Amino acid sequence: MELLKLIDELEDLVEESSGIPFGNKVFVDKKQFLEIIKEIRLQLPDEIKQAEWINTERQRILAEAQQEADSIIENAKSYVQEQVENSEVIKEAQKQAEKIIEQAQHTSKEIRRGAREYADGILEKIQINLEGLVETLKQNREELK
């Protein structure tokens, strides 16, 4: 991740800068420091776009899962109707149809749950990265004071 590399560069710049005797402060090359900050600002929109893309993908996956679930349920209903019309043993057809619908609903729930977990995991990783970035920036600003 380019953003983390830039933060590492910023940290290296502070670590490698000359220190002030008897203090915790350092002399930092202003031009170099501001250049790295500028790069970080340029990278942030990409990170935000990535988070938005992941959220869009999450919505798409959930919509696909819902569509698939609806299709499975509709197919199951069609199958049930056909079995009732063509079957001599209506009770058996009803049992089978209920089982298919139950399986379809279960599959639908599992697909939606999996899609939500996947999207949540990705969003969590991005959140952690962004929180770490913010914390590092705060620390670096404090060190510069």
TrEMBL record:
The coiled-coil segments of this chain are 62-143
Q: Quick check: keyword Coiled coil in the entry? A: yes
Sorted UniProt keywords: Coiled coil
What is the name of this protein? ATPase
